[in-house]
Fold:
Amino acid sequence: MFSKRLLLFVGVPLFVISVVGSYFFFSSKNAGKAARKAKYQAAVSSGQLEVIDEGPKTAECPLNGKMYTQAQKEIWESRRPLGVAIENHLDARPQSGLSAADVIYEAVAEGGITRFLAMYYCRDAKVIGPVRSARIYFVQLLQGYGDKPLYGHVGGANTPGPANALGEIRDLGWENYNDMNQFGVPFPFYYRDYERLPNRVTEHTMYSSTFKLWDYADKQRELTNIDEKKVSWTKGFKPWKFKDDAGLAERGTVNTIKFGFWEKFDAGNYNVTWKYNKEANAYVRANGNTPHIDKNSSKALVTKNVVVVFVDESPANDGYEGGHLLYDVVGQGDGVVFQNGKAAKIKWKKGSEKQQMVFTDSSGREVSLVRGQVFVEVLPTGNNVAY
Structure:
């Protein structure tokens, strides 16, 4: 009897102390995360992201391998990849937010005018845009980013036929869920800014921010890193392989990359030049012989990897006046990867819509990409790339 009383006398207080201690420990931990998140959001709003860029960089971004701090990792682990349709019409330049994307895909949208699918996960952009409409091949590329990635766009190709992007979004079960179509997401999450690029027509004025879209997905769609069924977005996602920068002495001398998208037409304003900076081990972009500037930073776009993939292009023949296009991004083909000042011929393969596009060398081994932004240029099969 005495031992039981002693057990109660000692055990109950210890249990209470344990419960209370755990409560305060986890409350303190969560409060710390909340404080870091608030600091991060303030940094995004002010454009001073370097405020939270302090400390050892030991966390690898799963989309492009770039190294960040553990505090930054805490932020991205609470969300899912976000793809945004950003236009490249002359009147849309300079765009906002491209330099902050982890991965960017570029392909012709119509009439020789290219468009970007900018993928965000590990970094934020205070402003992104101008945001434009969805395309079927971007929806297919986006599906390689795990379960239910977010897709920011303004409407999309919807003519019945093989280019029907909005129909594909409905068929996937994305509509009004992980699909962030501006037609279903109200102000202020998307907004028009007629002053950002003065004297432009309305179609070039739609903007958002990564924080706004992730916040809407969280608050209105219950989509964070997990969905309403507690399924993580990482289900089915297979990241690329990554490597560190080559040493200065090991870097190559391929200094200039040049190509066009529609070579048979006069689309010079959409021709691309990438210039290699050996010291920085990075490529600086020009579009139409003009430095391609990000309005957020007033600096030219810079990337660590330029991956050119040759893809079969065909008209959709769906009756759309502007001429919707098809790109066979599900399948396989040839390409060239530029990194560390060198060029190497590759094969690309995307086995299904839900699989990531992967790149292999002449031996069939997956190519490791240099840590940092990856820029994938989708060119019609048969186009020339000068380097």
Notes: The two ends are 89 Å apart (CA to CA).
